[in-house]
């Protein structure tokens, strides 16, 4: 079980099966849902644009849903393996280390042409 944020992405890149849980103040969540229109809040799901890990937000964040997902993660080998395979795809999609240096090089190359 991982709280939302970069920890979700880091956990996936370490190939650890997970679920995202988040409960916030109802007013804050209401404002966020009214203003931000995205399908997912977890970085793994956002990057992959699919339901790679289960997200339990607000009313979905309860003992029954968490227990059911934990049971799947621990006891359903096919379910767990599918998640791990998606983590491998995520790792490929993220690219090799050094993104900042590559980006800086591209910016310098582009700027020197002007």
TrEMBL record:
Pfam families: LpxB. One of its GO terms (cellular component) is membrane. It catalyses: a lipid X + a UDP-2-N,3-O-bis[(3R)-3-hydroxyacyl]-alpha-D-glucosamine = a lipid A disaccharide + UDP + H(+). Keywords: Glycosyltransferase, Lipid A biosynthesis, Lipid biosynthesis, Lipid metabolism, Transferase. It is an enzyme of class 2 (transferase). Its EC number is 2.4.1.182. The keyword Lipid biosynthesis applies. GO terms for biological process: lipid A biosynthetic process. InterPro entries: Glyco_trans_19. The keyword Nucleus does not apply. GO terms for molecular function: lipid-A-disaccharide synthase activity; phospholipid binding. This is lipid-A-disaccharide synthase. It comes from mine drainage metagenome. The lineage of its organism: unclassified sequences, metagenomes, ecological metagenomes. The gene is lpxB_12.
């Amino acid at each position: 079980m991982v709280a939302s944020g970069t920890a979700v992405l880091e956990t996936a890149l370490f190939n650890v099966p997970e679920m995202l849980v988040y409960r916030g103040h109802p007013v804050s969540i209401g404002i966020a849902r009214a203003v931000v229109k995205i399908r997912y809040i977890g970085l793994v799901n956002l990057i992959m644009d699919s339901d790679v890990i289960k997200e339990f937000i607000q009313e979905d964040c309860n003992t029954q849903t968490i227990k059911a997902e934990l049971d799947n993660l621990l006891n359903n080998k096919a379910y767990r393996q599918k998640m791990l395979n998606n983590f491998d795809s995520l790792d490929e999609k993220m690219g090799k280390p050094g993104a900042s240096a590559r980006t800086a090089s591209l910016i310098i190359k582009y700027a020197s042409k002007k």
